[in-house]
Design a protein that fits this description.
Layout (H helix, E strand, L loop, with lengths): L3 E6 L7 H14 L3 E5 L3 H6 L2 E4 L1 H4 L23 H11 L2 E8 L1 H14 L3 E5 L15 H22 L2 E6 L6 H9 L4 E3 L7 H15 L2 E6 L29 H13 L3 E5 L11 H19 L5 E6 L2 E6 H4 L8 H10 L1
Parallel strand pairs: 1-2, 1-4, 4-5, 5-10, 6-8, 6-9, 7-8
Antiparallel strand pairs: 2-3, 10-11
The chain binds 6-O-phosphono-beta-D-fructofuranose.
């Protein structure tokens, strides 16, 4: 009987998960394995809920956003006997290996299961935030930034027509990559990211100068940027099972827009792209990257190299220790501040 590989997708969904599942199933079957999907992230393993997976089922999912397996932010560590139940269901389902696709949280659990329980686990890096270490890019990022970029371009048209300052708030949680790349790609006048304290005088000066030159301006802000002047620091945020702030009601774009309007006297509008930047068809880059890291995960299982994550390094897909990729987020580094100085 063929050995079985369980595949799960955890954390926020992102475009690329389906192509990654497909790549993994194709390569696994080629190596002689059978695959089964675990429903809704770690919840599927905790509860033993599965969904069938084979080449026929996944053939056309390469172009579909979201994840056909469903996802959740379930953290087995926070559930009574959660880890124990994962280990029991792994056995009950007769799994040889588990491929966990996710960001720092999902892969943190995978790391734990490998380190503490020697479970046959392989990680596949995904996140629209692009904040995972030890891989050059994560799939989901390119599509999300592309969506945000298109939104920002639309704002330029209406902003220029009405002679307004337009503020676009994008996701990214603790990392400013989505905001930074969107701002660079749309010739924005200012960008606010969580890694760099906003110099409000500088922001106002630059917006006034941009407006004086062309009678409109574009600002991109990350949902997690800090503007103490807006008093948002006092807001108590709900936390998810991994201890992350749920930023949905924070309204950073709105805070920044009011601050700009108040301090420039220029009519200012905000838009929040929100979850729209996480849906829709993956870009070519994400389809390719996801397919390749998914295939590599099956290769790593076949090679018995557990505790590894398939990663993009240069233009190669290689195995890197899961432990090195998780625990510390890859945030916008200081070198990028120099780039910001030139462009904004
Ligand atoms: O981690 C991906 C992400 O899209 C973040 O950028 C964002 O803060 C968060 O997920 C939103 O989570 P949810 O979909 O649970 O509202």
């Amino acid at each position: 009987m063929a050995k079985k590989i369980g595949i799960l997708t955890g954390g926020g969904d992102c475009p690329g998960l389906n192509p990654a599942i497909r790549g993994c199933v194709y390569a696994a079957e080629k190596h002689g394995y059978e695959c089964v999907g675990l429903s809704d992230g770690w919840k599927g393993l905790v509860e033993g809920n599965t969904t069938p997976l084979n080449r026929d089922i996944v053939e056309y999912i390469v172009m579909r956003g979201g994840t056909m397996l469903g996802t959740s932010r379930t953290n087995p560590v926070k559930i009574e006997n959660g880890i124990q139940r994962c280990l029991e269901n792994f056995k009950k389902l007769d799994l040889h290996a588990l491929v966990a696709m996710g960001g720092d949280d999902t892969l943190g659990v995978a790391t734990k299961l490998y380190r503490d329980h020697k479970l046959n686990v392989i990680g596949v890096p995904k996140t629209m935030d692009n904040d995972l270490n030890n891989t050059d890019y994560t799939f989901g990022f390119d599509t999300s930034v592309t969506r945000a970029m298109e939104a920002a371009q639309s704002l330029l048209d209406t902003g220029a027509s009405h002679h307004r300052v337009m503020v676009l708030e994008v996701m990214g949680r603790h990392a400013g990559w989505v905001a930074l790349y969107t701002a660079i790609a749309t010739a924005a006048d200012f960008v606010c990211i969580p890694e760099r304290k906003i110099d409000t005088d500088d922001m106002i000066k630059k917006i006034k100068a941009a407006y004086a030159r062309k009678r409109f301006a574009l600002v991109i802000t990350s949902e997690a940027a800090e503007l103490p002047a807006a008093g948002e620091d006092n807001i108590k945020h709900q936390l998810d099972q991994f201890g992350h702030r749920i930023l949905k009601d924070r309204g950073m774009g709105e805070h920044i827009a009011s601050f700009i309007e108040k301090n420039t006297g220029i009519e200012t509008r905000t838009s929040v792209i929100g979850h729209m930047q996480r849906g829709g068809s993956p870009t070519l880059f994400d389809r390719m990257l996801a397919t390749r890291v998914g295939m590599k995960a099956a290769d790593l299982v076949h090679a018995g190299q557990f505790g590894m994550m398939s990663a993009l390094v240069g233009n190669q897909i290689v195995g890197v220790p899961l432990e090195k990729a998780t625990g510390e987020l890859k945030v916008v580094s200081k070198e990028w501040f120099d780039v910001m100085e030139v462009l904004f």
